[in-house]
């Protein structure tokens, strides 16, 4: 059944279905606060039938398991083609459901989602084992080799900040590896995932290989706890990631996590300051600051601190805040009323703890969850706005005199997702990059991500890597086979 504009259904076993008990919830446009659609609220019974559908599709002899890798790769590539064919539709849907500017979704989110499927489609035919001579046996006595096998049924839970793109990051490598999937999008932003489900069917993915269920945190918890799920892949907050680890312990599920960040960005006095200011503003205000690797903690060498702050303030105050569907919008609304209140509470705490509000820190308009780009100066490492992930358009600036000062502060940073450095000195750039405990370090740039590059975090920013060849390790098992040939 095709989804209607007003009432959506979820994909289980190749069928578009309501929740077993008929429960629903509403998804809201954060720019207008109006309801976009009614969506099924999956409970335990729905989770169970989705997992059963994925298990049946993974059984030996199923169409998916018998499919040649080259055919699987062609289907995955076709999903990418279909995403590009529906680029404008998906960008508009993403903008309405999430709030982000439709122009940004059109040139960033949607094309990269397509590119992820295109890139991962090539790996379907390149999953290989090794022939390994045994070190303790005479040559020729044994034939020993490894083969790589799909892990099984995978539960994938994706966040609301890049709904379509994060679904692509999860689905594409799991399909390339030959797994079957139950995907749960965030309750705030389910619409592009459901539309993607229709495109997945159109591409020819067999029934039950990809199941998409909608619901809240309780739905995700039931999925994580399900005994027939072999692996959980989660992107979201560090707090929820820790809950998933605990919930997966009973049957020792494999878990990969892409979690939060409080990414340091270092601007040296010898940097191209015009570029550093522009990129540092982009690092925090792109996507309303609702980015896990946002450059939210800015260190500026003391001799240029005031110049950089003045430039950032001017850049922030020139940003057009408005509905994502408007072509001139640079920064849309925050995703929900709950999240808006959370970010504003951080602003209040920053003022209360003695930081200087340089610009922003206020609501924009009287409808929708719009917030002005915000910059704090005179900050200290112990302040909540400096120490904790805000996940909004709030930048904190700290002056520094030497890299050692930054390293001393950053050793207490529980996160390690990304970092950045701006300098014209190549030695200084790579010395700083080496000092940062982060999965990605940007040098004289920010927000540069590619399907071929591994992405993930150190410390409490997660386990494992997304993208690149590295992500396939998340979805494969290694089997060693040893045959005695004789003496």
TrEMBL record:
<feature type="domain" description="Aldehyde dehydrogenase">
    <location>
        <begin position="16"/>
        <end position="481"/>
    </location>
</feature>
<dbReference type="InterPro" id="IPR016163">
    <property type="entry name" value="Ald_DH_C"/>
</dbReference>
<dbReference type="InterPro" id="IPR029510">
    <property type="entry name" value="Ald_DH_CS_GLU"/>
</dbReference>
<protein>
    <submittedName>
        <fullName>Betaine-aldehyde dehydrogenase</fullName>
        <ecNumber>1.2.1.39</ecNumber>
    </submittedName>
</protein>
<dbReference type="InterPro" id="IPR015590">
    <property type="entry name" value="Aldehyde_DH_dom"/>
</dbReference>
<keyword id="KW-0560">Oxidoreductase</keyword>
<feature type="active site">
    <location>
        <position position="258"/>
    </location>
</feature>
<dbReference type="InterPro" id="IPR016161">
    <property type="entry name" value="Ald_DH/histidinol_DH"/>
</dbReference>
<dbReference type="GO" id="GO:0008957">
    <property type="term" value="F:phenylacetaldehyde dehydrogenase (NAD+) activity"/>
</dbReference>
<comment type="similarity">
    <text>Belongs to the aldehyde dehydrogenase family.</text>
</comment>
<dbReference type="InterPro" id="IPR016162">
    <property type="entry name" value="Ald_DH_N"/>
</dbReference>
<dbReference type="Pfam" id="PF00171">
    <property type="entry name" value="Aldedh"/>
</dbReference>
């Amino acid at each position: 059944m095709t989804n209607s504009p007003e009432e959506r259904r979820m994909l289980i076993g190749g069928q578009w279905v309501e929740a077993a008990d008929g429960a629903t919830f509403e998804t809201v446009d954060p720019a207008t606060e109006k309801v976009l659609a009614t969506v099924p609220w999956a409970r335990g019974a729905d989770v169970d039938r989705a997992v059963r559908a994925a298990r049946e599709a993974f059984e030996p002899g199923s169409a998916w398991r018998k499919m040649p890798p080259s055919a699987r790769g062609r289907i995955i590539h076709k999903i990418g083609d279909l995403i590009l064919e529906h680029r404008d539709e998906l960008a508009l849907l993403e903008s309405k459901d999430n709030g982000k500017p439709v122009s940004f979704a059109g040139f960033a989110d949607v094309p990269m989602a397509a590119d992820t499927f295109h890139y991962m489609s090539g790996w379907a035919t390149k999953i290989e084992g090794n022939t390994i001579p045994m070190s303790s046996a005479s040559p020729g006595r044994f034939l020993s080799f490894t083969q790589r096998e799909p892990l099984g049924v995978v539960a994938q839970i994706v966040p609301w900040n890049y709904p379509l793109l994060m679904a692509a990051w999860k689905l594409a490598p799991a399909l390339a590896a030959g797994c079957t999937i139950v995907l749960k999008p965030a309750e705030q932003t389910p619409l592009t995932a459901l539309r993607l489900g229709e495109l997945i069917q159109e591409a020819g993915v067999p029934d039950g290989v990809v199941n998409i269920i909608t619901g809240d945190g309780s739905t995700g918890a039931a999925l994580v706890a399900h005994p027939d799920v072999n692996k959980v892949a989660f992107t979201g907050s560090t707090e929820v990631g820790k809950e998933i680890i605990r919930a997966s312990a009973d049957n020792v599920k494999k878990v990969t996590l892409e979690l939060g960040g409080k990414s340091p960005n270092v601007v040296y006095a010898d940097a191209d300051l015009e570029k550093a200011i522009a990129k540092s503003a982009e690092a925090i205000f792109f996507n309303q600051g609702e980015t896990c690797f946002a450059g939210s903690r800015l260190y500026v060498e003391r001799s240029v601190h005031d110049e950089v702050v003045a430039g950032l303030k001017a850049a922030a105050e020139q940003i057009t805040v408005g509905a994502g569907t408007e072509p001139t919008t640079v920064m849309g609304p925050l995703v929900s009323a709950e999240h808006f209140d959370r970010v504003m509470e951080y602003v209040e705490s920053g003022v209360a703890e003695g930081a200087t509000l340089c610009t922003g820190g206020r609501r924009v308009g009287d409808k929708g969850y719009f917030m002005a780009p915000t910059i704090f100066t005179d900050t200290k490492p112990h302040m909540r706005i400096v120490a904790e992930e805000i996940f909004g358009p709030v930048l904190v600036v700290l002056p520094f005199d030497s890299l050692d000062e930054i390293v001393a502060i950053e050793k207490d940073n529980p996160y390690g997702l990304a970092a950045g450095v701006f300098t014209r000195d190549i030695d200084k750039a790579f010395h700083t990059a080496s000092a940062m405990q982060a999965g990605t370090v940007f040098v004289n740039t920010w927000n540069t991500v590619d399907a071929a590059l591994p992405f993930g975090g150190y410390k409490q920013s997660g386990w494992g890597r997304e993208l690149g060849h590295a992500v396939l390790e998340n979805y494969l098992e290694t089997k060693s086979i040893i045959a005695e040939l004789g003496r």
